[in-house]
Design goal:
The structure holds 2 protein chains of 2 kinds. By secondary structure, chain A is α+β, with helices and mostly antiparallel strands. Chain A has one domain: Roll (Ubiquitin-like (UB roll)). In chain A, about 20% of the residues lie in helices and about 20% in strands. Chain A is built from 2 helices and 5 strands, in the order ββααβββ. Chain A has a 5-stranded mixed beta sheet with strand order 2-1-5-3-4, with no helix packed on it. Chain A is globular and about 30 Å long. The mean pLDDT of chain A is about 95. Chain B is an all-beta fold. In chain B, about 0% of the residues lie in helices and about 45% in strands. Chain B contains 2 helices and 30 strands. Chain B has a 4-stranded antiparallel beta sheet with strand order 3-2-1-30, with no helix packed on it. A 4-stranded antiparallel beta sheet of chain B has the order 4-5-6-7, with no helix packed on it. In chain B, strands 10-11-12-13 form a 4-stranded antiparallel beta sheet. In chain B, a hairpin with a 2-residue loop joins strand 15 and strand 16. The chains are: A alpha+beta, B mainly beta. Chains A and B meet through helix 2 of A and loops of B.
């Protein structure tokens, strides 16, 4: 099962946040799964139309995902999925 | 004068309380996070913080105990398939205004957003619904445009206390719209305005009212600091009259406040032209009219008069009784106990100030 890892910045809003094994077959399904563990987190990562927020990055095995609209980038059972904030602002 | 000041700033929600003749810091919440609007509902004392997270999107929180504890509620969100323009999906980019729905409708709240959606809650803010009659207005996709922000936004919501289903809203850029049936139908109310930035300055829709307010003492008296001057209406926005000062300084700016006790008395915070958006001649000045905009007096006593770059955003100038307060883009907060005759510094070291509101 792939592992989902989160930026520490999200712990401010979700204090119980921790690395998780995920069973979803798509990135969108995995984020739905994370919503079950941490209610509300999906809306922190995606907008109401399901697109990755502009200043949120998701990396799969070190590579930035390409499809920020439909979240169709592939991964495998051993993948590590990192959810990070983009560097921006000040 | 009300004795609490709420500030929405670029780095948090800040409250001051007036004790022993001075404003004292009373609450800091959401430190480090941009607060687009800090709003107190006068009906029940609930505080609202609209957050504009750089990373995590727009969030809405409320506190029923003056900022000691906050609860996140679902922020206004656009329904699936909503589009700003054809092919451009709509999502909430900013909460730009909040207003309570009146005494007769104690559970009603309004929220105005970028990219142009008005939202209403009928359950004390637990959930918000897009007002589809306005979103579907035939003028929106073709004639509304960005102004101040990249996409259209609703920054002003003015509920008539005599009939709380009667609401005016201000949109940049579209202008003033009015409903008399709580948002089922809308009329455009831009007669008399000028949009010098358009090929047709007297266009029906496309104006840029930076802020729209009503006189508490007479809600038919509406005022707006517009991109193209200062305008007043004495008939509920059916006709607007230019009351700006030719040659300034009371001309370009963002903010306006009207006295509680006198619909003819108002303050503006002039700025240089839209090209520079700085303090005029490096000096900070508030202008007050006591005669409905026929004349304006400059109020500078206690304000910096050199090397100053401050301007005042649209929600950051407010009055209560004889008290007037404003916050600036460079984090200065000023207060006058005497309707602007004399100004005192409350704090010179705040973050950029987005909104200032007097509260109980």
């Amino acid at each position: 099962m792939p592992t989902v890892k989160f930026t520490q910045a999200l712990k401010r809003f979700f204090p119980g946040l921790q690395n998780m094994q995920a069973g979803g077959k798509t990135l969108a399904a995995i984020l739905d799964e994370m919503e079950g563990h941490f209610p509300g987190i999906r809306r922190y990562l995606l907008d109401e139309q399901g697109r990755l927020r502009k200043h949120v990055n998701i990396f799969i095995d070190g590579a930035l995902i390409k499809d920020k609209t439909h979240l169709t980038d592939p991964f495998n059972d051993n993948s590590e999925i990192y959810i990070l904030q983009a560097l921006s602002g000040g | 004068m009300k004795t609490t000041l709420l500030l929405g700033t670029r780095k948090g929600f800040i409250a001051y309380e007036y004790r022993h003749g001075a404003w004292q810091s009373a609450n800091l919440s959401f430190e480090g996070q941009p607060v687009s609007i800090a709003y107190a509902d006068p009906r029940n004392g609930t505080w609202w913080a609209a957050l504009d997270h750089g990373h995590w999107g727009v969030k809405l929180h409320r506190s029923r105990d003056r900022g000691r504890n906050w609860q996140e509620v679902a922020a206004p969100a656009y329904p699936e398939g909503a589009e700003v323009k054809d092919g451009q999906p709509a999502s909430t980019r900013y909460i730009w205004s909040m207003a309570h729905g009146g005494i007769q409708y104690p559970s009603r709240l309004w929220a105005g957003t970028d990219p142009g959606g008005l939202f209403v809650s009928e359950d004390e803010g637990n959930s918000f619904e897009l007002v589809t009659s306005l979103w579907d207005h035939p003028s929106r996709k073709e004639f509304w445009m960005g102004g101040g922000r990249d996409l259209p936004g609703i920054h002003s919501i003015v509920v008539d206390p005599r009939n709380e289903n009667h609401v005016h809203i201000g949109i940049s850029c579209a202008g003033v719209f009015e409903t008399t049936d709580a948002g089922k139908t809308w009329n455009v109310r831009n007669h008399g305005l000028r949009a010098n930035f358009l090929p047709d300055p007297s266009t029906d829709v496309g104006h840029d009212p930076h802020i729209l307010v009503a006189a508490p003492g007479n809600p038919d008296h509406l005022w707006q600091q517009n991109h193209c001057g200062i305008f007043r209406s004495v008939n509920g926005a059916r006709q607007w009259e230019d009351v700006g000062q030719p040659g300034g300084p009371a001309w370009f700016g963002f903010a306006i406040a009207v006295a509680d006790d006198n619909p003819l008395q108002a303050w503006v915070a002039p700025a240089n032209s839209d090209e520079t958006r700085t303090a005029i001649n490096g000096a900070l000045c508030i202008c007050r009219t006591d005669d409905g905009g026929r004349s304006w007096q400059e109020q500078r006593h206690g304000l910096p008069q050199s090397n100053c770059f401050d301007i005042v955003y649209r929600h950051a100038l407010t009055s209560s009784g004889h008290g007037v307060a404003f916050g600036t883009t460079t984090g200065n907060l000023f207060f006058s106990p005497d309707k602007g005759e004399h100004w005192q510094v409350v704090n010179n070291y705040l973050p950029m100030i987005h909104s200032v509101q007097f509260a109980d």
